[in-house]
Prior knowledge:
By secondary structure, chain A is an alpha/beta fold. Chain A is 37% helix and 24% strand. Chain A is globular.
Amino acid sequence: MxxxxxxxxxxxxxxxxxxxxxxxxxxxxxxxxxxEGEYVAIVGTSGSGKSTLMNIIGLLDSPTEGVFAIRGQRxxxxxxxxxxxxxxxxxxxxxxxxxxxxxxxxxRQVELPLFYANVARSASRKRALEALAQVGLxxxxxxxxxxxxxxxxxxxxxxxxxxxxxxxxLADEPTGALDTRTGEEVMALFEKLHEEGLTLVIITHxxxxxxxxxxxxxxxxxxxxxxxxxxxxxxxGFRNGLSGAAPAPxxxxxxxxxxxxxxxxxx
Amino acid sequence: xxxxxxxxxAVDSIxxxxxxxSLTMLGIIIGVAAVLTILGVGRGASANIxxxxxxxxxxxxxxxxxxxxxxxxxxxxxxxLTMGDVRALSDAAxxxxxxxxxxxxxxxxQLVAGSNNKQxxxxxxxxxxxxxxxxxxxxGRFLTExxxxxMSNVIVIGTAVATDLFERTQVVGESVRIDGExxxxxxxxxxxxxxxxxxxxxxxxxxxxAAHGRIxxxxxxxxxxxxxxxxxxxxxxxxxxxxxxxxxQTLRLRHGLGADDDNDFTISxxxxxxxxxxxxxxxxxxxxxxxxxxxxxxxxxxxxxxMLVSVTERTKEIGLRxxxxxxxxxxxxxxxxESLVLTxxxxxxxxxxxxxxxLLVQRIPNFPIDLLIGVDALVLAVGVSASCGLIFxxxxxxxxxxxxxxxxxxxx
Lengths: 267, 412
């Protein structure tokens, strides 16, 4: 790969869906790399390919063509089991609709990734409560979704995404189902977590949300049309061999690791 | 073990849908309860019959003349079992394993006492009959050797006969007329308590000589009165087979049967009777249980139906679990164990219901049949309901694993 130190590394990724007779190019030669500790927003209208991009980054989908690697591991060589384990350990998902289990107390929701990571029940309860404290919901651990407000539900979902200490948090329209004020609270929480060292990728069509990010990637018709990080520029620039403009690693990885340790020790 | 971690998940999910879960379990509950109850009734009935048969002695052999006629157009079969055979079988020197040989000649005839009369089965027999058939007396005594030898006009009657003729059971010394001849009642048999198998409540016993010579118009074969059957007692349960061989040998010889001829008599032992009863009750129980088992299958299909609904309904949950790192096997096991828990729970409730019925039946006085539920039936019930859960849960669980996480997450 061009840069094995990148957390997410995509090279010339295409995704084609067969819709009956016609082929739909959801992604058309996307090259992108995201470093550890970045705060990235991927924006675009619906149908721009941003969701497909997120699914590929989140290992929920695999590209038709191109090379995708996460933490230097090529996705194409992974079995379904290994992909599930990577989703479990490396990636935290936050969805627009929260996707909480009905009639289940908050701490049990947060515990779910630990269940699939085979963490013993006694330890997993403790870690779930820690994660809930981290999003400010320590008091609400036993509440069920229908007893929580939308913002609180999204925070439970964020605690669930964090509980297995992933390297990457993928949020798909995380404020889409919230009013402006609670949306603001959730974004503040994301930014606090980013400050603490978490890599954050937010998919949104909301320009205001996008502008808060340190790097904004705009997509249209399956290609990246702009990338605010000048170093990586557009996909076409990369493809043309402008290697001098190859992504400059952020100067923080070591510090991030330390921060991350601190972060978990603190809770 | 990781497998056990799915049980709380399954219990949570079932608890979240209590109404639906209990309706689903109903099929399994009814199926298991029906199978267990029917098995229990079958077993109780057969135990009852076997008890009664055993109470009449397990050493008894009964010899009856064959009813088959020989060859085409042979007409009425010639009855060859006679008093001569009885005397021969009584010779202990040739029959060391036989202790008592009791001839019987019975028929249905009217008993009259005053203005009352009753059609009754009257059997001419000997004093040993009471011993061989384990008769117990309520009043008086059974026929004696002297009365047999003298062909006295004495009779022993069952309680039903006594009450019908005299409206009481203390009737020793009273007189009963049979075919115009007066017979003195010397004893009344103890009531056997039910109208079932082997009851003598509705019978009378007179000396064999009186039956042969005066009451019944009994034909002779080679100069000897014929009998309707002969009972014998073997010395012990172990010697029943030996006794059977000795009887067969003597009778074949006396009846002049060649090596190729079939026996013109049949010997049945209590053991063979027990076998026959056992086979009949087992067949019946099997038949009824199979019908009940159909409801188990129906219950299982109900489980499959609900699990399929549940998988569709929880599509989004499945997508989420996959996104959070669930392996295909995790999803499979989750749904499989959920249906397993449903069926096992249903099975346990079904067992509880059939046990409750069994206890209830025990409390009803004089209820003819006990409900006997054995450990093997329990194991069967639990095993069948568990395999129902696994078999009928497999398809929905496989459906769940095949869901694409992206589609599943998007599902509304």
